[in-house]
Amino acid sequence: MIEQQQQEMVTFPITLPATWCSEHSAKLTPQLRDWLLDPGSLTQRLKQHCKQFKVQVLGQKIEPCSALEANVDIVAGEEVLVREVLLWCDNVPQVFARSLLPLKSLTGDEQKLAQLGTQSLGHVLFTNPKLQRKQIEVACFDSSTKVAQLARSYQLFSELPMWGRRSIFLVEQKPLMVAEVFLPQAFAYQQTVIDS
Questions:
Q1: Residue 7 to residues 1, 32, 79, 160, 179: CA-CA distances in angstroms?
Q2: What pTM was estimated for this model as a whole?
Q3: Rounded to whole angstroms, what are the CA distances from 122 to 10, 11, 74?
Q4: Mean per-residue pLDDT pooled into runs of 10, the chain (196 residues)
Q5: Are the CB atoms for 163 and 125 separated by under 8 Å?
Q6: What is the CATH architecture assignment of 2-9+24-188?
Q7: pLDDT on residue 74
Q8: What is the DSSP string of 156-175?
Q9: What is the rounded distance in angstroms from the CA atom of residue 159 to the CA atom of residue 155?
């Protein structure tokens, strides 16, 4: 299968080392700002723009949280379940997503988050009425990054850097972090897209 061959070119975990900042520090086009700062479900928004949506799991494993990804809610060295996926719309990879789910957060109803398979994490999160989302941070990824290498392995090329966002979600006061990078062919970069 072509997807499997491409996936093997860039190995899991991809990781996202970056300088994350508030949206006020970033120079974003109105279109990109609209996508990056959208507080709603990215899965739901992508589904509105395509006929066929799918989640491809690149990998999932338990490892200590790195100092680069540590924050107020998830501390360095804490055991987290790392999950990396691609979100596809009509056979085009749109978004690379990396989630950190602390093992201490995977209790009670949240245990199911460890066994999502090809189900979207966002879909599950946004069906929870008690979900809280903290501040969205943004970052830029140039052609030297591993996520750019991943994009190229899927024949996605761009002269411009890719943009991503991350935020902490609280489910029943249990934190988890989700980071998403919009790949070169993403709707977020297309000026002609009109939201329905």
A1: 10, 27, 25, 23, 19
A2: 0.92
A3: 24, 23, 19
A4: 49 93 86 94 96 97 96 96 98 98 96 95 91 95 95 92 96 95 95 52
A5: no
A6: 3-Layer(aba) Sandwich (3.40)
A7: 97
A8: ---SSPEEEEEEEEEETTEE
A9: 13
